[in-house]
Write a sequence for this structure.
């Protein structure tokens, strides 16, 4: 018999989740008011379609005869329903279309005698006319003597409900005092009297009758959204409705406590933090939530944060100071509290209350003084404005400069002499804005460059650059030999060499003088001559570089110019070099030039606009030269002409220009293969510059957007680059602080002989800082214009280097000017912090490691900083470990911070390390990172747990072994309960097989076959 023992273990977990959802649906009650029709007696009756009205007709008989008949004619759409109260009368209902006839009953004569009496006919009418309006009912009465009287009765049909316009409250507005006055207009074409009532949120509040109705109630309503409903009924029962919603906030108010006139926010710049304290109450109780704040401090002040302080029941609001144009020093500050509430009908309803603190902010003066003289410094000799003075004479340097706030404190200048030495001088304040200095050290000839600086009392500095020339004279003479029919006007403009600074200008009129004598400055200059032959519509230009007046002797010939008359001169037979296959038509324009001066390059510009109608093709214009000097009386036919290379045709300006090295006689003509036909050979290779050539000639066409041979940035800026003007700025090595503004010059020099309009823009990350004084700058020909640009750095900008490009665009040119500014934190430093755990999981009673990276990005170095480390439990936010570290930092610092996680202080779970860096007298930066702290594997608790399970295991095994042993012993003992006769079992013998022991005994068992 066998027995088995089985151990069964089971665990059952049951969870029950019950969810209750309840929906509340608000029901708006409505009021249905039944109104009875109002009968209008008298001459006029108001009626509404489909509604029966009683018309009472009163008749007064003034004679002895009785009334025998009454005829009533009804308008189209009116129907007779009934006639009552007519004693002894016959009714002929509708004797003809639209009429009612009432007859006296002849058989009843004598029964009803009216005489001088009055009787009434009561008629019940129903109308269905198609349109509202006024209709007439005709009534005719006869007596027995055939006397007749008639009358028209006006009946007004009105089917249109009144239009109700609620004037106050305005829909979706806020009422702040808790009281409500309802004002509305009623518009109705026919009715004059109305009965009106209004309700708030379904509750009837008032009832009024009359014409112009205003309902006023002084009921205090609770906060929240309110629905106002107005309905009015007119004379005939038409009812109009109107509904609006207003939002009520009872006694909401805000008071701005700080800053104020005695406790100002001072030294503000764009981006500075302004802290405000305000008291917001509703019915005298502080409001601590559902508020959105906005602030105006000379401009919109963006909100940084707002906090309700429980201890004081006040709001602290921080905002970022705006940029204010021209940086006013004092400004009022205005605060707005936008209080928001939610109702069961309308969500996000809000009220706005405001308060103003007068003269409560003081912005830092960061605006430099302003010069009134944008183009140059005023230079005076004997009260005459000049740009040049004679050697060893004194010159007065004068500037007009002003400051909007604290005033100009000092004006000084650095003067760079022609030999490179620099002298510094201090200006004297002559009047309110005029500062001047009398300069006398003018012994050196040449150009003097001036940089004037003006500082206000807050050390803001403005700069203005200028120049003047110290010279001595040299007398130069010349003549215009072709006085008379070919005479012209010659405008001489003299520049300092290589610049556009004009030092002299004079005009020679060839029609009035043959010879001329002028005083010029004894120096090397650039000379521009405008040649105007106005009688012929010709205007040419001659540019001469590096004219050396110093080496010219007194009374020498300066220059001689003669116009060549090509109008009636045929050039067909003139020999053009060795190219006999090429002919030329009549000449277009020409002149000859002769001089005795030393100079550099020469550029001739011929204007052919007066001859444009005679041209076959502008592409075939050529410049021809002869070595002979053509003067009045010379014959063109005797000259040996050759074609020049390097000419540039500008079809938009109608000019052809060429560079030459010396002077001679020149004409412009058309290049043709036979008279009247353009030459087929328009291009090819050229040889020489400014001289004769053989073979094919390349003619550049200015304006085809290809920079061809012989074109350059001077004679064709449209094709060859951006040299129509030059652009420069005084903005160099700019380093500004956050919140600082500074103004710089933007200088334009016009290289052309026509005025320019320059459009400005800027690209790059610096663009958000750049403000142009003007974006469309006008630059006079051959002159310089100075505009201004201001760099405005917001107070909240990150420090760093910002770059960009100013783009200046004229009609034919584009100039690019790279600029940059370095922005740093003003006067101190700024620390940036980064913290990263080396391991995301740490073990209690071991070391947690974190990588700390600090950067100093400001001016000041060797900064002492304090670092507080807080290890906090995420679930409880309790600080479980706090350590403090003090270090010094130059540009950066990178180190590993270690913390021992003592089990007596730290519990396992999710944690975060909060690192707070304090520096510079209260500046702070912090960073938090999360990590996990866990228990070690062989902790005391875990060892105890494992020991418990081992004991339980061994105990279980011991019990199981005992049960097995017990069962075996039980079986062994069973024979004592059931004895066995072993003598009857087979015995072990020689012929028997041994089978083994008998179970649970030591008796042998055998089998004897």
């Amino acid at each position: 018999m066998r027995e088995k023992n089985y151990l069964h273990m089971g665990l059952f977990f049951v969870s029950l989740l019950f969810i209750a959802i309840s929906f509340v649906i608000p029901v708006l009650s409505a009021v249905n008011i039944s109104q009875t029709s109002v009968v209008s007696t008298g001459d006029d009756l108001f009626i509404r379609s489909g509604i029966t009205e009683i018309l009472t007709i009163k008749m007064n008989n003034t004679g002895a005869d009785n009334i025998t008949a009454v005829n009533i004619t009804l308008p189209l759409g009116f129907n007779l329903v009934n006639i009552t109260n007519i004693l002894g009368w016959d009714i002929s209902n509708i004797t003809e279309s639209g009429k009612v006839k009432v007859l006296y009953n002849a058989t009843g004569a004598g029964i009803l005698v009216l005489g001088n009496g009055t009787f009434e006919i009561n008629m019940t009418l129903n109308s269905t006319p198609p349109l509202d309006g006024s209709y007439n009912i005709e009534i005719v009465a006869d007596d027995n003597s055939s006397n007749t009287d008639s009358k028209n009765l006006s009946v007004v049909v009105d089917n249109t409900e009144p239009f109700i316009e609620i004037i106050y409250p305005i829909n979706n507005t806020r009422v702040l005092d808790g009281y409500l006055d309802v004002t509305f207009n009623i518009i109705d074409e026919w009715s004059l009297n109305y009965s009106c009532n209004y309700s708030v949120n379904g509750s009837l509040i008032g009832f009024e009758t009359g014409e112009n109705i205003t309902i006023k109630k002084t009921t205090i309503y609770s906060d929240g959204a309110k629905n106002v409903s107005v309905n009015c009924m007119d004379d005939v029962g038409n009812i109009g409705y109107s509904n609006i919603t207003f939002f009520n906030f009872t006694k909401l108010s805000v008071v701005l406590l700080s800053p104020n006139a005695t406790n100002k926010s001072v030294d503000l710049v764009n981006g500075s933090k302004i802290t405000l304290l305000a008291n917001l109450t509703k019915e005298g109780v502080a409001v601590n939530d559902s508020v959105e704040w906005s602030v105006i401090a000379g401009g919109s002040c963006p909100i940084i944060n707002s906090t309700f302080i429980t201890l004081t029941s006040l709001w602290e609001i921080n905002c970022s100071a705006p940029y204010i144009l021209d940086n006013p020093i004092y400004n009022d500050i205005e605060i707005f509290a936008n209080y928001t509430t939610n109702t069961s009908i309308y969500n996000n309803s809000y009220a706005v209350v405001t308060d103003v603190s007068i003269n409560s902010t003081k912005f830092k003066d960061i605006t430099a003084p302003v010069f009134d003289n944008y183009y140059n410094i005023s230079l005076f000799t004997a009260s005459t404005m000049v740009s040049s003075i004679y050697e060893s004479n004194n010159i007065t340097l004068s500037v007009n400069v002003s400051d909007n706030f604290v005033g100009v404190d000092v004006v000084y200048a650095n003067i760079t002499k022609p030999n490179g030495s620099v002298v510094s001088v201090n200006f004297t304040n002559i009047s309110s804005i005029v500062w001047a200095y009398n300069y006398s050290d003018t012994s050196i000839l040449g150009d003097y460059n001036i940089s004037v600086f003006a500082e206000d009392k807050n050390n803001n500095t403005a700069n203005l650059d200028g120049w003047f020339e110290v010279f001595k004279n040299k007398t130069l003479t010349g003549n215009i030999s072709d006085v008379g029919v070919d005479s012209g006007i010659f405008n001489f403009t003299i520049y300092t060499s290589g610049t556009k600074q004009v030092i002299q200008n004079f005009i020679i009129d060839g029609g009035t003088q043959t010879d001329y004598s002028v005083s010029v400055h004894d120096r090397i200059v650039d000379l521009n001559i405008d040649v105007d032959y106005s009688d012929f519509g010709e205007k040419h230009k001659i540019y001469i570089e590096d004219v050396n007046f110093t080496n010219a002797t007194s009374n020498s010939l300066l220059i001689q110019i003669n116009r060549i008359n090509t109008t009636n001169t045929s050039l067909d037979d003139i020999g053009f070099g060795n190219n006999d296959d090429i002919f030329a038509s009549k000449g277009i324009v020409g002149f000859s030039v002769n001089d005795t001066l030393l100079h550099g390059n020469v550029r001739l510009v011929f204007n052919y606009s007066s001859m444009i109608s005679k041209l076959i093709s502008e592409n075939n214009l050529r410049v021809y030269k002869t070595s002979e000097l053509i003067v009045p009386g010379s014959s063109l036919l005797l000259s040996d002409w050759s074609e020049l290379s390097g000419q540039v045709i500008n079809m938009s300006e109608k000019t052809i220009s060429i560079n030459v090295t010396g002077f001679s006689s020149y004409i412009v003509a058309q290049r043709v293969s036979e008279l009247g036909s353009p030459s087929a050979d328009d291009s090819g290779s050229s040889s020489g510059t400014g001289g004769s050539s053989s073979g094919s000639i390349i003619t550049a066409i200015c304006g085809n957007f290809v920079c061809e041979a012989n074109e350059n940035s001077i004679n064709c800026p449209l094709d060859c680059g951006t040299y129509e003007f030059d652009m420069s700025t005084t903005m160099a090595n700019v380093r500004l602080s956050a919140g600082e503004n500074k103004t710089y010059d933007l200088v334009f020099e016009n290289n052309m002989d026509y005025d320019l309009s320059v459009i400005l823009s800027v690209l790059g990350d610096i663009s958000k800082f750049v403000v142009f004084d003007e974006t469309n700058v006008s630059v006079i020909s051959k002159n310089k214009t100075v505009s201004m640009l201001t760099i405005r750095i917001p107070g909240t900008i990150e420090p760093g280097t910002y770059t960009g490009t100013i783009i200046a665009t004229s009609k034919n040119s584009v100039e690019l000017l790279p600029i940059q500014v370095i922005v740093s934190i003003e006067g101190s430093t700024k620390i940036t912090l980064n913290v990263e755990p080396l391991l995301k999981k740490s073990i209690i009673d071991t070391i947690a490691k974190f990588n700390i990276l600090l950067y100093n990005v400001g001016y000041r170095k060797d900064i002492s900083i304090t670092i507080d480390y807080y290890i906090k439990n995420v679930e409880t936010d309790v600080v479980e470990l706090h350590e403090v570290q003090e270090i010094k930092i130059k540009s950066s610092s990178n180190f590993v911070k270690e913390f021992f996680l003592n089990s007596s202080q730290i519990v396992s779970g999710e944690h975060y390390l909060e690192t707070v860096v304090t520096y510079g007298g209260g500046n702070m930066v912090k960073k938090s990172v999360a990590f996990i702290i866990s228990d070690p594997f062989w902790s005391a608790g875990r060892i105890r747990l494992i020991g418990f399970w081992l004991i339980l295991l061994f105990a279980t095994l011991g019990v199981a072994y005992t049960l097995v042993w017990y069962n075996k012993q039980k079986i062994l003992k069973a024979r004592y309960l059931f004895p066995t006769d072993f003598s009857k079992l087979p015995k072990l013998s020689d012929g028997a097989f041994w089978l083994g022991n008998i179970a649970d005994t030591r008796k042998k068992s055998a089998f004897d076959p």
Remarks:
- The first strand starts at residue 44 and ends at 47.
